[in-house]
Amino acid sequence: MAGRNKHTWTSEEDAKLIEALLELHAMQQLLNVSLSNSGLKAEPHIKPRMKTWKNHFSSMHDMEYGTNTSGFGWDTDKWCVTVNAGVWDEYIKSHKGVACFRDKPFPKFDNLCKIFGKDGATNNGATDLGEDVIKET
Q1: From the DSSP assignment, how many helices (H) and strands (E) are in the chain?
Q2: Phi and psi (nearest 5°) for 96?
């Protein structure tokens, strides 16, 4: 389907895209320097970690902002989902794999909202950077 998403780029758009790509490149170099002895590579280390974070984030986000999650809340002091025992017990019956999140702190939630493109306040999606931020080095 050639031409379907055709966009005529302006000079300003080109410049901003290049600027953003240079920032990503600089951040990648900073990560390489700051963790130089770790041996971390995009594969097999960083991409699977991103996948785990995305799965955990999706579960937490669905509990907080999803449909049919009446009774769920967020404890900003403990960084975890709150819900009474009865609601929780019913929820985990139909949502396999989330039982481990009961009373579990998840302090990365706000930053992962930005990375994975979900605005917690409005539930609007931004660009999902989770797949694109980490490239093979």
Answers
A1: 4, 2
A2: -65, 145
Report the pLDDT averaged over residues 80-85: 93
One-character DSSP codes across 103-119: T---TTHHHHHHHHTB-
Distance CA 86, CA 30 (A): 47
In this predicted structure, what is the pLDDT of residue 41? 77
What's the residue count for the chain? 137
Residue spans of alpha helices (H) in 35-118: 47-65, 85-94, 109-116
Q: Is 79 helix (H, G, I), strand (E, B) or coil?
A: coil
The position carrying tokens 């951040």 is 27
Confidence (pLDDT) at 119: 54
Between 129 and 46, name the one with better pLDDT: 46
Are 107 and 56 spatial neighbours (Cβ–Cβ below 8 Å)?
A: no
